[in-house]
Design brief:
The chain is of the alpha/beta class and about 150 residues long. The chain is about 35% helix and about 25% strand. It has three helices and six strands. It has helices at about 1-20, 60-65, 115-140, and strands spanning about 25-30, 35-45, 50-55, 75-80, 95-100, 105-110. The chain has a six-stranded mixed β-sheet with strand order 1-2-3-4-5-6, with helices on both faces. It is globular, with a radius of gyration of 15 Å.
């Protein structure tokens, strides 16, 4: 039910507020070429691309390994969790954010694995097109929001 989504939505809100305060523009649920969806994709002031995977409970982390594919689409990969999440299970090469409904903090930086130019262009184009189509769909319900 809806209660299952509430902790994840709360973590998302705080993570996006943190990213915004750091100068990053974020989009939720970005469809990737693999067919997966990144929970949060964000573009920094210098064009760096971060993906943030939101985990609301240990079982969600253990049963979902799709995040391993996300590195091919970002310069840094982070996990965002709440303060009760067992942080020791998060891979050491991934960044760690702790967030609640009001904001968040980066507890560990992610290792950088810079995208190749062609990959960066493809991800940036996807972020721009999906963001623009969603914005257009808000003002015109006849526009299909998802292009991918």
């Amino acid at each position: 039910g809806q209660n299952n989504f509430e902790p994840a939505r709360t973590i998302c809100r705080g993570a996006i507020r943190l990213l915004h305060a750091m100068g990053y523009a974020a989009i939720l649920e970005l469809p990737l070429p693999s067919g997966r969806r990144a929970d949060i994709a964000a573009v920094g002031p210098g064009g760096e691309i971060w993906i943030v995977e939101v985990k609301s409970c240990l079982n969600d982390f253990r049963t979902d390994r799709k995040w391993e594919e996300y590195r091919a689409h970002c310069d840094r990969l982070f996990f965002a969790v709440d303060r009760d999440f067992p942080q020791e299970v998060i891979p050491s090469d991934a960044g760690l954010m702790v967030a609640d409904g009001y904001g968040g903090a980066i507890l560990r930086e992610a290792l950088a694995h810079p995208l190749a130019a062609a990959s960066r262009k493809a991800v940036m184009l996807r972020i721009a097109r999906v963001s623009s189509s969603r914005l257009s769909a808000i003002s015109d319900p006849k526009i299909q929001a998802e292009l991918f």
